Amino acid sequence: MNTTVITADRSCNQISYLIPDMIVLYIELALTLEILLVNVCILCIFIRKENRSPVTVLLLALATTDCLTALLTVTMDFCGYFVFSDDVKPTVKYSNLNETVLLWNRKYPSCVIFNVLDNIVYSCHMSSILITTLLCVQKALAILFPIWSQSYLTVKTSLIAGMVALLSSLSLFLPSVIIASLEMSSGSNGACCYSDKHISVVVDVLRNGKCNTWLNESKNNSDYFLRKVAMFPRLG
User: Fold this and answer.
1) Which DSSP category does 220 fall into?
2) Residue range 105-122: average pLDDT?
3) Which of 32, 55, 153, 156 shows the smallest number of beta carbons within 10 Å?
4) Protein fold of 2-232
């Protein structure tokens, strides 16, 4: 899960992004390298003309989207740690346990770029899900209707289906990316400010004891700040 903390003062709505612990980051890097190695091998094998088939075309698309999802995710986390380390601040989660988390307060205009990259990750992950579903449907049709599938389940059909899956995923996120990017602005000290409309859409307040404890006990709380927490799925 990717935790996002919304900080709203009188002039600027800011979003802070949770950065994983260093050990988690290196595990994430190791998994990413494994994903890239396996999928690059798949790409090198199935891209050859003699290996192309309706199934391998979808597998090529799946390998590409998985590579992009893993690579962009770990790249953004490493950028938070090593490139924009000055913008990452430890925040007390529970004062009685002295438990801290790292929050990345993205600055303007880099926040616009990272907002686009975030949504590309979500779009690629959604594409992977759709392509996996297409592979299941394709296999079911081949079993149930073997003669029909030989005539109609062609390489061209798989290519079109893969493109439709990709474009469908992009269409889900592209409008919100454009609107959110246009509504971002620079605040004091280069802070990235989000519009009230964007915050109202993004924020889903978790009204439970643990959330309220975090909000009330955070060292960064003040009379002028309201902290809300929203959960979003990241890379599964």
Assistant:
1) T
2) 87
3) 156
4) Rhopdopsin 7-helix transmembrane proteins (1.20.1070)
